[in-house]
Amino acid sequence: MRKGGIDLAEKRIEYDFVVDHPNDATWSVSDFNPLGKVPVLVTDDGASICDSSVIVEYLDTISPIGTRESCASGRPSRPRSRGTRPAA
Predict the structure, then answer these.
(1) Are 42 and 29 spatial neighbours (Cβ–Cβ below 8 Å)?
(2) pLDDT over threshold 80, residue 71
(3) Alpha-carbon distance 12 to 34, whole Å?
(4) CB 72: neighbour CB atoms within 10 A?
(5) How far apart are CA 20 and CA 12, in angstroms?
(6) Structure pTM?
């Protein structure tokens, strides 16, 4: 989750980082991604977003930081992003 983690930090988006080990009996990534792959971003409303490129695109849509609009306003919005479930 390097790409998404950097984007979350740059956009000052609060999130919970959850490390989920594939050999652990409590492995829950498949609950959020049917393919069982990581990274997975789980939003506040429970939607799952998979693939780092798609996650970064989503983060760009919910936060004006780093866009031309943010330069004009200078204020970040409060996004709905909640957490990730990457494997170690």
Answers:
(1) no
(2) no
(3) 29
(4) 9
(5) 23
(6) 0.65
